[in-house]
Design goal:
Elements (H helix, E strand, L loop, with lengths): L20 H10 L2 H5 L18 H19 L3 H10 L8 H11 L8 H12 L13 H9 L14 H24 L12 H13 L5 H31 L4 H6 L9 H19 L2 H23 L9 H7 L1 H11 L2 H13 L1
Length: about 350
């Protein structure tokens, strides 16, 4: 995607003298309130479990790092990739997918809740940092890339996306596999040896042992995680190069029109990623401690939603307009989704104890 070929913004703005359109998008995302709050939102494990594991923000930065490496190697638009990556999880509520499930249940009568759709609400409507327009007025390519993620039929192999969007989606998958494996061992939910049941981890572990001698357990785990990322990214680049050479799209528009994605891992590596994801789902995401915290967090959000709907005066002033336009349920959902984990628990204590 060439900067000069951008479809522009909903609200026309003059070009910036020394920043391209996607650099401006990146800066607007980074300076938004929603982006800063990602630092205190759960990725998989809550802040009560320690300080080592990833937050939603550190996951986002890891995705951006991987995606930029892929984009530079494949000669894609790095500024667009970075902006897409930084925005991709901006709509997540507190408490990770547990929070999303509860809000989807609470808002079922008015369309439900999806963090990808919420990201669009934030950047198109809810962020109020500029006097000339609602939201962040991002480039249409950013909005279209995020909108694609809301499609229920989306798969890693599906086309209809810019190559830059494909690169970010592939990087997202690689990042969460690697860091969830790392975090689960650090937190004691798994031993590094437990991950040997997944072929992808066995490959990474073998490479780490071949490269380094006499590592202690912590050094070995981190070395294996680095190798895991390298295996996945190297496969992604090699398989994407082959597809790009065969398809030879002459423009971003041609790549966008293709039915199947060009920037994705090989089918063999995808099978191995799926195996690792199943292992993590069975042994980590359904670990009793994780389920216990999910249940508590879900109960807190559900109780706060009920309290807000029953007493709209609890809503901050900025959400009153949402309530008038779209109903009280959506306004309550927007308020709850914006909360960090810590703030949500503080509000829950005030509503239940005060």
């Amino acid at each position: 995607m060439d900067d000069a070929a951008t479809a522009g913004r909903l609200y026309a703005e003059p070009d910036h003298p020394y920043r391209g359109p996607y650099q401006r998008d990146r800066d607007r995302i980074v300076h938004s309130s929603a982006f800063r709050r990602l630092a205190h939102k759960t990725q998989v494990f809550t802040g009560a479990m320690g300080d080592y594991h990833r937050s939603r923000l550190t996951h986002t930065l890891e995705v951006a790092s991987i995606a930029r490496t892929v984009g530079r190697t494949l000669r894609l638009n790095e500024d667009l990739i970075e902006a897409l990556a930084l925005a991709h999880d901006i709509g997540h509520p507190p408490f990770g997918h547990a929070g999303e499930d509860v809000l989807n249940e609470c808002l079922s009568a008015c369309g439900g809740f999806n963090h990808n759709q919420q990201a669009l609400r934030l950047v198109e409507l809810l962020e109020t940092r500029y006097p000339g327009f609602p939201g962040l007025n991002l480039s249409r390519e950013i909005l279209d890339g995020q909108r694609w993620r809301t499609h229920r039929s989306r798969t890693e192999a599906a086309g209809g996306r810019l190559l830059e969007v494909q690169a970010v989606d592939a990087a997202d998958s690689i990042a969460y596999n690697a860091h969830d494996a790392d975090d689960s061992v650090e937190l004691g939910m798994l031993r590094a040896g437990d991950l040997d049941d997944a072929a992808l981890w066995r490959t990474a572990a073998r490479r780490a042992r071949q490269r380094y001698a006499a590592l202690d357990e912590e050094q070995f785990r981190r070395a294996a995680v680095h190798e895991l990322i390298d295996v996945c990214v190297s496969d992604l680049i090699a398989s994407s190069r082959r597809r790009l050479a065969n398809a030879a799209p002459a423009s971003a528009a041609e790549a966008l029109a293709l039915e199947r994605a060009l920037v994705r891992n090989s089918s063999e590596l995808n099978e191995q990623k799926t195996e690792l994801q199943r292992l993590l789902f069975d042994r980590v995401y359904r670990h009793p401690l994780v389920l216990e915290q999910r249940a508590y967090a879900g109960g807190a959000l559900r109780a706060m939603y009920t309290a807000l709907v029953n007493d709209p005066a609890r809503l901050p002033t900025k959400y009153h307009g949402v309530a008038q336009r779209e109903g009280l349920s959506r306004a309550a959902g927007d308020f709850l989704a914006a909360m960090t984990d810590r703030y949500a628990l503080e509000q829950y204590d005030q509503m239940t104890l005060g």
